[in-house]
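Protein modeling request. Please complete all fields; requests missing the sequence field cannot be processed.
Requester role: graduate student
Desired output: 3D structure, token encoding
Chains: 1
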Amino acid sequence: MNPIELLETPPAEAAATRRVILVVDDALDTLRMLCDALAGEGYTVLVARDADEALQRFEITVPDGVLLDAVMPGTDGFALCRQLKSMPAWSHVPVLFMTGLSETEQILKGFASGGVDYVVKPLRIPEVLARLATHVRNAQAARLAREAVDVAGMGTVVLDAQRRVAWQSPQAARWLDETFAGRPADERAAWLQSVPPNADAVRALPGGRQLAARHMGESGFSEAMLLLRTERADTVFPPRPPDVPLTPRETEVLSWLAKGKTNRDIADILGMSPRTVNKHLEHIFEKLGVETRSAATAMAGRLLS
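Delivered output (305 residues):
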């Protein structure tokens, strides 16, 4: 199969029905081999011979995954990956490096530039397909979860054990950028770290609004989840019922339960098994002192509003 022929498939139409993978490599034989293998797995394939062509493909359609040669003429794969990750609209796309450089230094360089995995040349096609499928699936689940949180009118920030920002939803990032525009970076970090457990903190916004942050508890890994929302300056979060030590994961499960999702729906959204969802619900029911889904849903309105 000629890789150039695959570029003639209208990307927008193809993306609506099949996953789109961008392959970036200056070796025509490698492109041809990967195009055949990926097309056989049901992917729509786009190809690029260098970094400039890869960026042009992204301007046409954002792929679901990228197979990227680490060493290319001109801009190498590491620099291209850093550029992709610097663009908010593209940063979620998983990048898998293809490289003949198996030294630890090069592998670490790939991860540091934003890659999620690497495969060593000569390529073992079954391994490439398996790794790619896993990362594309995980990236899609994470993206859906982030977007769902924001659609619900909330932003989410997760702090690690050192109280650094480990992850933030797009809406949370926008609100924080607006709130702390022109302020030192450590001021934003200090405010997020100051939100007390089981309590709220507020920060003034332009136009008579305020950004409110609610601490939703800690997980077993000492990660803390904060829920953000904007309110009028004279409005705050309603008081949270005390002594409900839900973990961030339990809070997510309860939130989706309150939206009427089934256990299987919740499992798909959060990337876990239905059995794990059941386990979380058992703990939630015990902590809330309820026995039914409807009772837990009723309490969720007060806990998560």
